[in-house]
Amino acid sequence: MMKQSAGTVYIVGAGPGDPELITVKAMRRIQSADVILYDRLATTELLDYASKKVELIYCGKAPNAHAIPQDQINQLLVKYASQGKNVVRLKGGDPFVFGRGGEETLELAKHGIPYEVIPGITSAIGAAAAANIPLTHREHASSFACVTGTRCHGDKAPVRWDLLAHSVDTLAIYMGVSQLGSIREELLKHGKAASTPVALIERGTTSKQRTFTGTLEHIHHLAASVQLSNPALIIIGEVVKVREQLLMAEQQAEQQAEQMIG
Ligand code: SAH
């Protein structure tokens, strides 16, 4: 019975911050939603595109302060879909990259609720582009990894900094601001060069973006001195140099243009 009348739940990636970075498909689902459950990170401007009759539910997750616990979010998705409503679960970046989309789809599957996952530009991709850092590069990097910075030893799947230090060229670290000191220590301990370039990108792709670069050796001091705050992404690897090369090339081109005018 319920399966025939149930609405669909769309687990939607809102992209990294700039509202224009949402997909056409995601935008259409927002426009036709009866209910939208959204996170702190999802760009709230996108909600302006929803119907006037839409029911908006804020699930805001500030670090260490879950406004609505995950199991209740799961229950709400099931509840609204069972009422025949089209539900959008709007999440920052991509729902399947540190977005708990896997838990939500599992819950829906268990209840026989139809669902669709709509990908979004994850913040590593968005922030890297906005900071002019290519995550791979013919000369500097043949691989990159998206890594969580918050998982300590003893967790079910601890981060293998020992392997990451050597086997991946570019590391894009999410949720790492408060752990930057220990991430740095782990990587140095496992042999990553102290001179490895690092970029810190705060609020990437938004009008409030701030970008800082340094080396692994001093990165914790840099973060403290600029009072780096969330959301921020940490990119570690030789590719960070490309940003500096681009900035230098632009400056030289400007100087040459000025000389020609002079
Ligand atoms: N599903 C999201 C990630 C959620 S985890 C995605 O695919 O992007 C939250 C972490 O994402 C933050 O701690 C931060 O590291 C990163 N993040 C999200 N938005 C960001 C932004 N605009 N700039 C930099 N980092 C961001």
From TrEMBL:
PROSITE patterns: SUMT_1, SUMT_2. Keywords: Methyltransferase, Porphyrin biosynthesis, S-adenosyl-L-methionine, Transferase. GO terms for biological process: methylation; siroheme biosynthetic process. Gene3D superfamilies: Cobalt-precorrin-4 Transmethylase, Domain 1, Methyltransferase, Cobalt-precorrin-4 Transmethylase, Domain 2. InterPro entries: 4pyrrol_Mease, 4pyrrol_Methylase_sf, 4pyrrole_Mease_sub1, 4pyrrole_Mease_sub2, CobA/CysG_C, Siro_Cobalamin_biosynth, Uropor_MeTrfase_CS. Signal peptide: none annotated. CDD domains: SUMT (cd11642). This is Uroporphyrinogen-III C-methyltransferase. It comes from Paenibacillus algorifonticola.
